[in-house]
Write a structure and sequence with these properties.
154 residues; alpha/beta; Rossmann fold; 5-stranded mixed beta sheet; 5 strands; globular
Length: 154
């Protein structure tokens, strides 16, 4: 059975930027209840070059992060293309595609990778999600649970 990693990132002290961390808390409960031993989770404030070593042992990696994309209704699962690899000088130190590209260059491994973008609304200095972000996270959780069940059945 394929090994799957769900990796949330973002700052829980910045309201909806904490969606990645909160998502991991919620999916962990489900993983344990469903006894999905082949699915692991990890969480951090931002992506770093060292994350190439974290993802190299997995067949599939799903990164989870808050998104501010205007045309995003609730969430979107997007396939990662490592050929778009770049270092970003923003809140998240490196891009997901950069981490996957680096994993391939260092370890010769290219996990099947996705980003689960969850729409956030507010990014003030508070340790709570907005109601809209919470609703979006629940919808993304339901979707990812079905996605994981399908991947686990094969």
């Amino acid at each position: 059975m394929e090994k799957i990693l769900i990796y949330g990132y973002g700052n829980p002290g910045r309201q909806d930027d904490g969606l990645g961390a909160r998502f991991i808390e919620e999916i962990d409960k489900w993983i344990e209840a469903e006894n999905m031993e082949h699915v692991s989770t990890d969480c951090n404030y931002q992506l770093n070059v060292e994350d190439a070593a974290v993802v190299e042992g997995y067949d599939t990696v799903i990164f989870v992060d808050a998104s501010v994309v205007e045309d995003l209704e609730h969430f979107k699962l997007e396939k990662v293309r490592p050929d778009n690899a770049r270092i970003e000088f923003t809140m998240h130190a490196v891009s997901v595609s950069y981490v996957i590209d680096l994993c391939n260059k260092i370890y010769g491994k290219h996990p099947d990778s996705y980003v689960l973008h969850i729409k956030g609304h507010e990014f003030d200095f508070k340790e709570e999600l907005t109601e809209g972000a919470y609703i979006n996270m629940q919808a993304a959780l339901d979707y990812l649970k079905d996605f994981l069940k399908e991947r686990s059945a094969t």
